Amino acid sequence: MSRLSRRLAAGSGEGGFTLVELLVASAMGVVLLGVAGSMVVSSVRKQPGISQQAADVQTARWVTERLTRELRNGVVVDKATASSVSFQTYVRHATCGSAETLPSSTPAIKCEVTYSCSGSSCTRLEAAPDVYTGTPTTIFSGLDNSSEVFSYEPDATNATYVGVTFRIPAPSGDAAGITVSDGASLRNATLGN
Predict the structure, then answer these.
(1) Comparing C-alpha atoms, which of 52, 67, 79 is closest to residue 141?
(2) DSSP letter for each residue of 33-88
(3) Which among 3, 57, 63, 83 counts the fewest CB atoms within 10 Å?
């Protein structure tokens, strides 16, 4: 029998950890728990900002999809700036500005739709053709657009293509935010005014 097996068989008390080994292992465990805890706390603190940014991105996607759909049904761009676009388009409402949606068997009507973005929000106004006044509806807020939102091809006075770019700030404010962009051509422009 080997010496080690004789010691173990005799029940000697030399197996286990020393006090120094236990102190070092305990200190390492406390440090690891502290790091894990701080990561959890940091994640919990950042989650509301991340959730808000995700909601803003989803809203920006919805607005760009709606805008491009209306542009594709558009006839002519009447007014165009870097922060606003007014165009005549066909909508499925009973009257311009109404919330009542027409049945699919009824033809759409032509209305003036104006999207305007300034500061951190965008509005939409639907009125009779060539009317640019009324009560706009805020459709999106939470932007960080300091420059142009709308771009035009070939230019603002003869636009046949409208591009839109929304910049959404980062939740912490220290990094670059997210950009959502799209655009559409006025495919019904050949229908005339």
Answers:
(1) 52
(2) HHHHHHHHHHHHHHHHHHHHHHHHHHHHHHHHHHHHHHHHTEEEEEEE-SSEEEEE
(3) 3
Query: Using CA atoms, how far apart are residues 101 and 119, in angstroms rounded to an integer?
Result: 31
- Cβ atoms of 165 and 179 within 8 Å: the answer is yes
Q: Which position has the token pair 């706009």?
A: 136
pTM (two decimals)? 0.71
Name the residue among 99, 97, 75 with its Cα closest to residue 87: 75
What's the CA gap between 26 and 19, in Å, rounded? 11
CB 150 within 8 A of CB 79: no
Residue-wise pLDDT for 153-190, tens only, equals 888 888 889 999 888 877 766 667 788 889 998 876 65
List, for residues 128-152, the tens digit of each pLDDT value. Answer: 998 888 889 988 887 776 668 899 9
Return the number of other C-beta atoms located less than 10 Å from residue 96's C-beta.
18
Cβ atoms of 97 and 91 within 8 Å: the answer is no
Alpha-carbon distance 111 to 142, whole Å? 28
Structure tokens given for 118: 């300034």
